[in-house]
Amino acid sequence: MHPHKNSKNGISCKMVLQAVGKVLRKSKPKPNGKKAPAEEKKQYLEAEFTKTRVVDFDLKELVVLPREIDLNEWLASNTTTFFNLINLQYSTISEFCTGDTCQAMTAACSTTYYWYDEKGRKTKCTAPQYVDFVMSLCQKLVTDEEIFPTKYGKEFPNSFESLVKKICRYLFHVLAHLYWAHFKETVALDLQGHLNTLFAHFMVFVREFNLVDPKETCIMDDLSEVLCNPAPLPAPSSAPSPSSQNHVTER
Ligand SMILES: [Zn+2]
Hints:
It comes from Oryzias javanicus (Javanese ricefish). By secondary structure, this protein is mainly alpha-helical. It has helices at residues 3-26, 47-50, 60-63, 71-93, 127-142, 160-188, 192-208, 214-217, 221-228, 242-245; strands at 105-107, 111-113, 115-116, 122-123. The strands form two sheets. It has a two-stranded antiparallel ribbon. Strand 3 (115-116) and strand 4 (122-123) form a beta hairpin.
C-alpha cells in the first residue's frame, strides 16, 4: 500500500468518474436500441467540440524554424515537448484505458496498431500496453545523451532524423487513440480544448518537417482539416454578393 498515492488517486478517480457519469447519462440511446456503427461516432468532429481550443492564433508561426536555431536542436526540443505533453494528456484518462476497455490499440477508420518488438515480431497487445511501450521507448530515446545531446558541442547522430520520425509516428498513434476511444472522458474532464490545441500544434509541426507519413495521418485528416485550418471569420452580413447581382457583366 502507498497511502499518499492512493489518497491522491482516490480523489481524482472519484471526480473523474462523476464527471464521466454525467456525460454518459446525457447520451441517449438510439431509438431502435441498436448500437451505431463505430464509424458514425466521431464525436470529436462535432462543431461544439472542434471550436474549443486553448489558443487561437496561427500555429504555423510556432513551428517554423527560427533563424539562428539549428534544425536538429529545434526538432529535438519540440519532439521532447510533444512527448511530455502527450504523455500528460494521456495520463488524464489513463484510468479508463484498461485491458478490458481497450483490448487493442484502436483508432479511427477501423485502425488497429500492433507493436513490433525489437526483433520485428508483430505483438498483439492492449492499448495501455501499447501506450506503455510507446512512452517507455520515447523516454529512453529523448533522455539518451548520444541521441538527444544537451551538452554544448555534442553532435547529433546520423540516425537522429529517423528516430525523431519514429517518435512522432508513435505519438500520433497515442493521439489517434485518445480521440477514438477516450474523447468522451476528455470532454467530461473539460480537457478537449487542451487535446485539440495539442493535436493541431503537433500536426502543424510534423507537416512542416515531414515527420510522419501522410498515409499514417490520413485517418485523422477530417479533424486536422478543421483544427489546423481555422475557418475565416464569418462575413459581416448575408447580403447577396455583388457578383450575383451583376451577372450580366461577365459577357
Ligand atoms: Zn484506451
